[in-house]
Amino acid sequence: MNKTIEAKYFDGHSSASQQIIIAFNDTMNEFRLQVADGISFLWQLEDLQFEQYGSLLELRNANYSGAVLKIDNKDFSQQFYEMMKQDRRLDIHSRLLNLGFSKITAIAFCFFCLMVLGYFYVLPPVAERLVVLLPASFDNEIGDIFMETFLNEHDVDTVKTRYLEKFASNLNLKNAKPLRFTVVKSNELNAFALPNGHIVVYTAILDSMNSSDELVALLGHEVSHVNNRHSTKMLCRNLAGYMVISLIFSDINGVMAVLTDNAQQLQSLSYSRTFEQEADEQGLKIIIDNHVDPNGMVKLFDQLEKENDISIPQIISSHPSTEDRKENLQKIISQTVYEVKPNDNLTSIFESLKN
Amino acid sequence: MESPITQNYRLEFFGKGSDYFAIMIVNWLLTLVTLGLYYPWARAKRLRYIYGQTALNDERFHFAGTGKEMFRGFIKLILFYIAIIACYILILKMVNSPLLAILFLYLAIFAIIPFAIHGSFRYKMSKTSYRGIRFGYRGNRNELVKNFFKWFLLTIVTLGFYGAWLEMNIRRYTHQNIRYGDVEFSNQANGGDYFILNFKGYILTLITLGIYAFWWQCDIFNYYIDNMAMVKGEQKIKCYSTATGGGFFSLLVVNALITVFTLGFGKAWADMRTQKFICENIKMEGDINIDEINQTEEEYTNAFGEDAMDFFEIDLA
Q: How far, in Å, CA of B193 to CA of B118, rounded?
């Protein structure tokens, strides 16, 4: 106890400020607080909590509830801080802060870039791989939940639905799970497949078609989405993406929100370029194996493109350009040997569907 | 006995944007690396800085809340949340009625609000101290819960008109139960005044195509502050605001510009400007001697309510 310093002391009983003398030695492991003549007590370093505001150091003692010691002395404050640093008594937050403004900002910036790279290049494949771990019942369940609300808001065309079922039963769609079909009355040029094998076709898209080949192409495309679990993969990808973004913005509530209200968005899910291409190519294979003209798929795209300005249909979502997809299909068709057999059955059902 | 001397009290804020930014960045980093688990500690760091940079008559405030306490509250909250979601799914499966399930979800989350308000005030006040004397909250939980539902029902019945009363009643009740040692807080806010103030603000904002919004905001702030007072026996401190609509205008517009032009990174500076503005515009006058206040409030370490308020983004200012 060879050094002394003046300090301001609040005893935790009254708000009155007291000027006191504290004594300490170089190791600073204890401080003697001389409160009044003859009254003093000892504060051990290990009981102390501190706050530093420039030259001002505030010490609080876990054993003296409420009491605060305030020492306004630059040298003392610095010496104390160095002691704490050497003793490894600083928490990780303070140690990082110690690096200084520019270093922290630089670290944070690098980290941010890493996160962004990860978000675009690491996350999607990882999330898709993880889908393998999800049981098929998961696909069915989210599909069912979605369909339930969807049917409440849309008008089903029961007659056309029956025809579409009949149309599909005449085809070998190579489906991995049982399929269901529904035609809904709508002016929207749209069709989508749910992960539970439910394929929904809007009346407007049927009306826009000129031949049964196009409908086979549409079904082949949608079935391929189901077979490859594209919806579930995209859902996992989006979910993981939202969670990472929420995390980047330290928005913990956001992470929870994503978990609770994400199943409602199946319909507006836009597939990635690779998924669309995969569905196009596998759809094309289904068409050829059914001895239907593969150019039906190209014609389907032509039709959709023509009426594009009315509404942007889901299956030619702007994401992968329709031009590219058509080119890709034409290239494959030109390299493939295929045999088209006229199918009167399909044609006649298609005619009924159109009316 | 000497006659009390009327004095004024000086509230100041010393926080600097660059310091706050550094704290936020470190918070961000640690929260990210821990996949969000650091969040309560980050919050504690942030609050500790803001409180510590606020001073009344040259003495700083102190926030003693810790990440550990808030983490415990956070875990409780998550468990509670999971329980609610589980019930929600159960109802969905058993009764097969989405409407009922969603109704339950909203009711459950809604029912937690008064408990959260109570818990939050208890925790936050108990953890706030000044000159070694703790703040405290003496409100009765059951009374608040009962009144909350009564006021809320009235709000529904009156198609929302009672909302102003609901808000002010909660404010008055909670604020009147704040203690600073043996100093009691008092609050005279009432729904009628508040309703008229908002009605006027709404109409004028419409007429002026939104420009009056700053003055409306200012009126609300002034109303909050002007109705606050502290009492100790015969002694009293009265609060009043010196904020002006123009002041709010420049505060909020500049803040928006700072935030937008720095792609959000300038928010730390904007937040500091806001705190400074608030502190500089709250004036106090009275005869309570801040040297003679006695410790009366006990410590309270359950942060469940505080975390719930943060989680559901309820801000009672």
A: 25
Nearest-5° Cα angle at A346, A144 to A225:
35
Q: Looking at the domain A3-98, which fold is it?
A: PH-domain like (2.30.29)
H/E run at residue A44: strand A39-44
Tokens coding B92: 């969905």
Q: Tell me whether A10 touches chain B (CB under 8 Å).
A: yes
Residue whose C-alpha is closest to residue B201's, from B189, B184, B213, B191: B213
Is B31–A67 a contact, with Cβ atoms under 8 angstroms apart?
Answer: no
Which tokens hold the place of B122?
Answer: 């208890």
Query: How would you list the strands of the sheet with B228-232, edge to edge?
Result: B7-9, B282-286, B235-241, B228-232, B183-187, B178-180, B133-137, B128-130, B59-63, B54-56, B11-13
Burial of A314 (0-12, 13-18, 19+ CB in 10 A): buried
B128 is written with which tokens? 């706030």
pLDDT, tens only, B43-96: 999 999 999 999 999 999 999 999 999 999 888 888 888 898 888 888 888 877
List chain B domain ranges: 9-311
Cα dihedral B145, B147, B149, B155 sign:
negative
The length of chain B in residues reads: 317
- Give the span between the Cα atoms of B41 and B18, in whole angstroms: 20
d(CA B197, CA B224) in angstroms, rounded, equals: 12
Minimum-distance CB partner of A53 among B39, B52, B311: B52
Q: Are B171 and B315 in contact (CB under 8 A)?
A: no
Contact predicate A163/A276, CB 8 Å:
no
Are A115 and B32 a contacting pair, CB within 8 Å? yes
Beta-carbon separation of A250 and B27 below 8 A: yes
User: Domain spans of chain A?
Assistant: 3-98, 132-354
β-strand partners of A14: B294
Q: Retrieve residue A190's tokens.
A: 């749209």
A218-264, pLDDT tens digit by residue? Answer: 999 999 999 988 888 888 887 777 777 777 766 555 555 555 455 44
Half-sphere exposure (Cβ direction) of B258: Cα atoms closer than 13 Å: 17
Residue type, B221: F
Of B32, B131, B292, the CB nearest to A248: B32
Contacts of A15 in chain B (CB under 8 A): 130-133, 181, 290-294
First to last CA, chain B: 39
Is residue B177 within 8 Å of residue B137, measured between CB atoms? yes
Can you tell me which residue has the tokens 């008092």? B186
pTM: 0.76
What does each C-alpha distance from A115 to A121, A299, B72 come to in angstroms?
10, 42, 29
Minimal CA separation from A278 to chain B, in Å: 34
B14 CB neighbour count, 10 Å cutoff = 16
Q: How far is CA A224 from CA A104, A129, A265, A281, in A?
A: 49, 18, 20, 9
Beta carbons of B113 and B312 less than 8 angstroms apart: yes
Q: Running DSSP on this structure, what letter comes out for residue B54?
A: E
